[in-house]
Structures are given as structure tokens and as C-alpha cells.
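Please think about what follows:
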Amino acid sequence: MTTRLNKYIAETGFCSRREADRLLGDRRVTVNGICAGTGAVVGPDDVVLVDGQPLRAREVQKSTGRRHVYIALNKPVGITCTTESSVSGNIVDFIGHEQRIFPIGRLDKDSEGLILLTSNGDIVNKILRAENGHQKEYLVAVNKPVSDEFLRGMARGVRIHNETTLPCKTSRIAKFGFRIILQQGLNRQIRLMAAEFGFRVTQLRRVRIDNIKLGALKPGQWRNLTEQELRGLLPQHTDW
């Protein structure tokens, strides 16, 4: 039984199907020592290398015994967190998963980093209803030197969308960069908060959602959540 090579690469968790097509177009993938092109197929005994290195297969859903898919993606800039197939660059087509999956929450098109997706619509609603209880950590670059006054003001709360944001934690990580930990998720919240102090966000990357960390995932790569991560995210939920 053969599988399209881009699908095979995506299912290892190495990258999305779209990224796999780019690798194939750049002639960076070989099958049994021969450079493979777009549209190539592979069988179970074929040896696939990317940049000369073997792909490390991720744990597949069947081995976990789970009813649903739960994954963490390092979303690149330019991908939109929507299931609408009519939207170019939507997150579902970008991943190209064999099951129907949904993003949990959002990460705006201009931002990058950790976002969770699942095939379990019930858990999406549970997490979103409890959104204010989940910590989300971001690394942010801005266009001006970060001051103590700016950090204190952000941490106290800022008036946006006709409401004041909840108190949060901030810290300086570089002359033009800071870390912020939120427990809410208003639309474009960090960018609007920073703008109130005359700062423009030039880069925004989410690196953690509660106990789930971005870790070594490269932009476009995804992985299955572990049992420990799932139980930490929703400790009262048992039907995975």
C-alpha cells in the first residue's frame, strides 16, 4: 500500500503537508537515496530522508487508545486560525490532518507559536468556557526599549475593547523584548495593550498554555499531546 509522500511526511509530525510540499519542491527529500519530487508516493519499506536525516515517526493515535486527536502546533505567521476552507492559509488545510480537527481558541494571523487543536468538539467548548483559568505565556518584541513603567502598566491592566484587562505578569527579557503571562484571551489583546503605551508589537510568539510548552517544535511542526499534558489541561475530564 502506497501513500503520497507529502502526507507521509506530515503524519510523522515533522511538518505540515504544505511545508512537506515545499521541501519536495526544494529537492530536500530523498526516497531510497533518490531525490523525490512533488506527487511522489512511498510504500511501507521505503527509506525517506529529509536533508539526509531520517524522519522520526511520532506516536500514532491508534497506539494511545484515544477516541480523539489532540495536537500542539507551532503556528507560523500568516496562518489563520479558522476552519473555513474558503479562507486562504486556514490552519486546518495547513496541517492537512486525516481527521477533522478544530483549533482551541485563536492566535492571530500576525502571531506565531503554540496553539492546540483537536477532533473533540466537546473539549473545545470546555476549555474555552474555562479560558480565564488557563495561563498563556508569550514572548513579545516591540519597537522601543522596554521600560519599567511600561511593564508595570501592562501588568496592572489596560482599557481595551471597552473593558479593563485582568492583572497579569510581565518581565523584561531584552532591551526590546518582554515576557507576558495572561489568563484571558481578548482579540489582539497584547498588541492593543502595548499600543495604549505607544508601543508597537513587531513579533509575538506564544510559548506555553498552562502545562503545555512549545518546546523544540519548529514553525509548522506539530505533535500529539501526552497523557500528562491532557490531564493537566483538564484534570476533571476522563473521556479522551
